[in-house]
Amino acid sequence: MLTFANTFIGKTQINLDTTYFQSFLQELSIQDENLFIVGEAHDVKSTLATEFFIIKNLAKKINTIYIEGGKSEAELLNIFLKTGDSTILNYTRARKTNSDYKVFLDSIYALNKKNKLTFYGFDFERPVCVGYLFSKWFLNVKMNNNLNMDSLSQHIISSDEIESKTLEDVRKKSWKLQLVFDKLKTSFYENEDEYEDILDSNLYTFKQIIFNPVKANFNTRDKNFANTMLHYEKAKGLGNSIIIVGSDHLVTKQSFIPLLLGKLPKKYSIYSFFFIYKNCESTDNNGIKIYNSKKQLLPFLRKESENLPSINFYISQEQLIPTKNKKMKTVITEFYNQ
């Protein structure tokens, strides 16, 4: 018997199976090294609202959110959480007017007042995020090697003034940014002391950005995702964390999550929320396009409420993610008619 409750995130109302979710929460131990994974479809209606519902209910068990974004975007989101300055979001992927992502981040900001959260990024860098940070760090700075950092920052921002419409647009911008990073790496090696004096406490983040190994190369991206997360694991551990990533990065042996799980220490209890969609609107097409998950995933929908707008949870007895990790449970998250 499914029991639903209307839940709001911003102005979005979603009909969620809250009874099952609460029973799932009671099974978790706050003492365990819990790692949560959300496998989503980007830009599908109610996805971000459901992610916030999950994060809000796990707030006492998590303190870190890993996003499919660069280290520069994560830095901006953390500044936003500390200051509440929403103009910063204009230099992130939330820059669309009234975007679902912005509503999601506003909700995280409100939640953060009670439950302190930190964002980390594991994807490639976006020019608009990098340019904004550099414009603050290098205001009116001209390096000893005559590199005008102020002008360079504005150049990076202007290269991303028009939002990308296709993956090819994203790739082109990313590779142009890599050319800038190559110049900055050379400059950094030649003037390391000067960069240290200018950047002070921001030096570490600067190095993380320009030396980020993840590129907009879709042949190597998953492997570099996994390596980046393994660096985080070694540095700070991944317990009490949630990873949010597209579901395509979960389903094959050479995709991100299976690669990561194959190398993680066995101490983690892992729960994946695998989002599966049927007859849902795609928000990036103004509600015109109807989105369904891939055919091989649709049999995992139980169809109890397929004629109603609803979102349900259940633990799958079958493992959707190819992994030998025996401490993993998959929570199927069913989206109908969103």
Question: What can be said about this structure in brief?
Answer:
The protein has 338 residues and is of the alpha/beta class.
Defining key terms:
alpha/beta; two-stranded antiparallel sheet; Rossmann fold; 11 strands; 338 residues; 7-stranded mixed sheet
What does it look like?
The chain has 338 residues and is an alpha/beta fold. The chain has two domains: 182 residues, Rossmann fold (3-Layer(aba) Sandwich); 84 residues. Helices cover 38% and strands 18% of the residues. A seven-stranded mixed sheet has the order 5-4-6-3-7-11-10. A two-stranded antiparallel ribbon has the order 1-2. A two-stranded antiparallel sheet has the order 8-9. Helix 2 runs parallel beside helix 4 and helix 5 runs antiparallel to helix 6.
The CATH architecture of the largest domain: 3-Layer(aba) Sandwich
Low-confidence stretches: 1-5
Radius of gyration: 21 Å
Spatial order of the strands forming the largest sheet: 5-4-6-3-7-11-10
How is the topology of this model organized?
Elements: E1 5-9, E2 12-16, H1 18-26, E3 33-40, H2 47-57, E4 64-67, H3 71-83, H4 100-112, E5 118-121, H5 127-137, H6 149-158, H7 167-190, H8 192-199, H9 203-210, H10 221-236, E6 241-246, H11 256-261, E7 268-278, E8 280-281, E9 290-291, E10 310-315, E11 328-336
Helix pairs in contact: 2-4, 3-4, 5-6
